[in-house]
Amino acid sequence: FLGIDTREKAETKTGQADAGQADAVFLVAWDRVEGNVSLISIPRDTLTDIEVFDQEGKSLGKSKDHISLAYAYGDGGTESCRLMEEAVSNLLYGVPLQGYCSISLDGISPLTEAIGGVDVVVPNDSLAEVEPMWSQGTEIHLDGAEAETFVRYRNIRIEQSAMDRLQRQQEFLRAYGEKAVQVYEKDTSFLADLYSSLENYMTTNIGKDMFAKVLSALQREGNADSMTIPGEGVQEAGFDAYRTDDSALYEMVLDVFYEVKE
Prior knowledge:
Structural class: alpha+beta
Number of strands: 12
Distance between the termini: 34 Å
Number of helices: 8
């Protein structure tokens, strides 16, 4: 699941590197046997192998760079999502992914308003300079416009500010999932209406039925287990970067996606 830093779907072609970036990257893993749902956060500045292209759209192979840039090399639609899907799969040692969904900035408001807003607990003080009342530990109600500020804002002059923002995005998704399940329990047609309202802001190959199945799994199991790929934020060439702990990441992938064969 991708949050893209553009307001409209880019009208571009592969190789132009101007399709926008994936500022939010999350992977939902659903164990269909046990019913468990895991939400894996992937920091936008994670360094990994991504496919790069020349201006004519010809592949130049793989290059190690921020994972968020994999989206930029595509067409702003299905090809950008495919490139991100490939980059995430490569990062996770080849785990196959079954679907993608990207939403532009303008989709945040209707997404939030569809469930009557979201109540969150502010996880840190990274919004203090723009919303002084949103201090750490404060419980607040977010409408559509406020939700965009909550999940999008960061001070790029502060190192690793994207990690503070990631904490807010995680809290928003936790609260959103909880509220969405409540709404879905009362009105199962809600999901189809939400899906339709987001079509102008969304690129996905996941059908309504699959969204409904994941929501049903959350309804049965409660909130998804939330985790961030292990690693640390560093400065490289004057830019924020996130270097994974390969050993710990490998163990996480085994734990989430595999079973020990007796």
